[in-house]
Amino acid sequence: MDKSHRDSIFLEEAEILSHDSFEGDQYLLRVRAPECADHARPGSFAHVQCDPQRPLRRPISIMRASPGEGWVDFLYKAVGAGTRLLSRRRPGECISLLGPVGRPFEVRARRPLLIGGGIGMPPMIFLAQTLRSQADVHPFVVLGSEAPFPFNPEPSRILTPGLPGEVIAAAPLLESWNIPSRLASLRGCPGCFEGYVTDLARHWLEALDEAARAEVEILSCGPHPMLEAVASLASEFGLPCQVSLEEFMACGVGGCAGCAVPIESETGPTMQRVCVDGPVFDARQVFAGIHTNTASTPRR
Q1: Percent of the chain surpassing pLDDT 90
Q2: What's the CATH number of domain 111-286, 3.30.70.100, 2.40.340.10, 3.40.50.80, 2.60.200.30?
Q3: How far apart, in whole angstroms, are the C-alpha atoms of residue 266 and residue 132?
Q4: What are the residue ranges of CATH 2.40.30.10 in the chain?
Q5: Residue 290 banded pLDDT, cuts 50, 70, 90
Q6: What does the pLDDT look like over 190-229, one tens digit per residue?
Q7: Whole-angstrom Cα distance, residue 65 to residue 96?
Q8: Looking at residue 198, what is its pLDDT?
Q9: Which letter does DSSP use for residue 120 in this model?
Q10: With the CA atoms of 6, 16, 125 and 134 taken in that order, what torsion angle do they form, in degrees rounded to the nearest 10?
């Protein structure tokens, strides 16, 4: 197992540059953290001290990073005492940040299908950011949320065959990068697909011919039930799939093993730590009972 990602974890006092709130207790936090920004990869996260009152850190996925300007963006939802304290922090203050942590996504396909749900959306946006400059890679992004989206969806200008005609809502940032995206919601949002992200992804997959579908790889982050459904979809179509797991953790650097999950390895069942052995795993290792089809790795 490659462990090179464990050699680039830095401790920084990160200055808050901006901190914006959105419906549904969602927040977009930008901090100045040059080392984290320089080494962050899609799928990695930072272990953040939300407030001096709460010494235990919280893992938060990295949504964007600018190595040149030294900033990192986090989109998070305030759901507990720690993140609620974090939501009160203001620009100019500093927070202790440990990162980037974790094994990132590794895109090996010409047509990566990125599926993000809820607070699993940020890694997909970061991944799309890194793919935008690769001319031979053509990603499609599906995002879903039970809460209001932390952005104003806009009609897509990018033609994406195979989708229902009324499904036109897209993420503005991805549109500005010329990366096609569509949104799924059960809230009756105009232009969004009324259903689950996996159902929307199925429409896209079924519209591809056999040769194009052979170039697809699924990469996903979101709640565990959603990832299980994504793994099932990948198995149905015989596609390789990587999933990024969400788990409670204390130390965040592999010492406490509090985030260990059962994984099906080449030598049999084992326990691996989400923080440093993941958070990205092959879906067949996590959902061994579902993802049983043998899928070859697509080539660019």
Answers
A1: 83
A2: 3.40.50.80
A3: 34
A4: 4-101
A5: confident
A6: 999 999 999 999 999 999 999 999 999 999 999 999 999 9
A7: 17
A8: 97
A9: G
A10: -70
User: Nearest Cα to 195, choosing from 240, 142, 124, 125?
Assistant: 142
pLDDT of residue 125: 98
Beta bridge partners, 11, equal: 98
- The number of residues making up the chain comes to 300
φ/ψ of 99, rounded to 5, equals 175, 180
As assigned by CATH, the class of the 4-101 domain is mainly beta
> Of the given ranges (69-73, 121-125, 160-164, 286-290), which has the lowest mean pLDDT?
286-290
Q: Find where tokens 């039930």 sit.
A: 225
AA letter at 290: I
**Measured distance CA(128)–CA(130) in Å, rounded:** 5
Burial 154-167 (b: 16+ CB within 10 A, else e): eebeeebeebeeeb
With 0-12 / 13-18 / 19 or more C-beta atoms within 10 angstroms meaning exposed / middle / buried, residue 15 is middle
H or E, element range at 212: helix 210-213
